[in-house]
Design brief:
single chain, mainly alpha, 4 helices
């Protein structure tokens, strides 16, 4: 999603309160940050699930995953409670819940 937003695809109603249909060029650095965070989160999830072998100490992996879970909890709160964008609330919101629950299950079971 953030890669497409970075390219200027008109999906801005799904993020950041849905203020802009197309994210202004001067604000697209945020999408790069979110892409990097999403990539790191995916790498951690795969490592925790045993599907990838990135070199990270188990204790550090758990700490960083907890930080990401807190981030996702905040994102979920904003997506459902704060946003005025129905598209963000009903499309992006559920995806943050699914991502967060997946991480929580990995923390508990993995």
């Amino acid at each position: 999603l953030h890669f497409l937003l970075f390219l200027g695809v008109p999906l801005g109603e799904l993020v950041l309160g849905g203020q802009n249909k197309v994210i202004p060029a001067g604000q697209r650095y945020r999408n790069v940050i979110f892409m990097l965070l999403s990539t790191v989160m995916a790498m951690l999830y795969l490592t925790k699930a045993g599907l990838a072998a990135f070199s990270i100490p188990p204790m550090l992996l758990n700490i960083v995953m907890v930080v990401f879970l807190v981030f996702l909890a905040g994102a979920t709160f904003f997506n459902f409670v704060i946003t005025k964008s129905p598209k963000e609330k009903w499309i992006t919101g559920p995806s943050t819940i699914i991502t967060g629950l997946s991480g929580l299950m990995l923390m508990i079971c993995g």
